[in-house]
Design a protein that fits this description.
Length: 64
Amino acid sequence: MKQDYNREFSKGFTLIELLVTVALLGILAGGILMVLDIGGILTKAKLTQTKKFSASIENSLSLS
């Protein structure tokens, strides 16, 4: 009798199993993003933006 009960209700995943899986996938995705050096790309973008802004200011001062 006990075995029939377990078979009937063990067909899917529990909420805890799904939450643990999503958490692990998030951790793995974060690790992959760190390896790909997304921060370095953002730093280069900020540096380029700053260079363009300073060139714009220099150009404005030379026109005066």
